[in-house]
Design a protein that fits this description.
three-stranded parallel sheet
Amino acid sequence: MLILTDEKPNVYYELGYAHGVGNEDYDIVLVAKEGTKLHFDIAPLLVHFYSSTEHLRKIINEQLKKMIKFTRNR
């Protein structure tokens, strides 16, 4: 999971690395706080926007379950 809020350069490096080593989009969960402006090069990617800590927990829980289910069925 990568959090894109607050423009931390290392997150963009980690995202590039994750894609570079062969991870697919469904292997990477991108989240950002509502209102975060995304850079043009990642704007087409699926980003889950959260409005509160509880909403963020829900997104993480759901996405991790999907990732686990998908990787077990490979």
